[in-house]
Amino acid sequence: MSDPGQLSAAVIGLGSMGLGMARSIARAGLSLKAFDVNPKALEAIADVGQGASDIVSATRDCDIVVCVVVNAKQTRDVLLGPQGAVQAMKPGGVVVSCATMSPEEARAIGAAVNEAGRLYLDAPISGGPAKAASGQMTVMASGTSDAFLRARPALEAMAGKIYELGDEAGIGASYKMINQMLAGVHIAAACEAMSFAAKLGLDLKKVFEVITASAGNSWMFENRVPHILEGDYSPKSAVSIFTKDLGIISDMGRTEKFPLSLSAAALQMFLMTAAAGMERDDDASVARLLAQIAGVDLPRPV
Length: 302
Fold this sequence. Notes:
- This protein has about 300 residues and is of the alpha/beta class.
- The chain has 14 helices and 9 strands.
- It has helices at about 20-25, 40-45, 55-60, 70-80, 85-90, 105-115, 130-135, 145-160, 170-200, 205-210, 220-230, 240-255, 260-280, 285-295; strands at about 10, 30-35, 50, 65, 95, 120, 125, 135-140, 160-165.
- The radius of gyration is 20 Å and the shape is globular.
């Protein structure tokens, strides 16, 4: 394996996860370039790496390209578009693709990257911005042994847990969709529970204290309910993420002829929240929608 100090990495997409990932890569000693459409995001990595004016400049002759955009379309555009990363990066280099997408889309993008003479790692991520910043994310990856070998320095910089789940693109995406199915259902359930508690006139802070010490707790309840208690719906994770991801899961269930009734109910809750004008707000906004329907008050920002 190459010395990390001799390797060059590019991060495309410096959002809530990508920024922390970029800083973690630089902290591990890799040479870092990055690109984001938001100039302020580039300023945020100026002390550890070089911001680029476009994708080609960021990825030219790069060993490792980490693509941290929103969906499959953006991933395809970044990697395979007319001014895409794949042609600019080093031949034999590896793409680490982190966007949540369907397994079918991951396979198709991976095949196109391989055809261009580059390696592809289907590597969706989980853990949130804090773990991205500390280099402690979970990576659910699949790809060839060569792709894992070449991506290893960046993976170890970004992640506390790296799961090698198979040798083909699409397997990592499948694992991520199972995670997103559970995450979406758990968020919707947490929001429903807290809104119902408000309807019952309960002390919501005390509800949070009791449930987090009881069997009904979940990671999402513990993580999202504080947003409700603080009345802060600035988007740590937006409603639109779950209209997208649970929509993908719905399509997968239909293809496999497998009933996904709880996921379908959660999807409708997120869709209603988006339709009520909260698409770009925090996904805990499902609680606001239910409170509005039931005519109950939730905490307001201090």
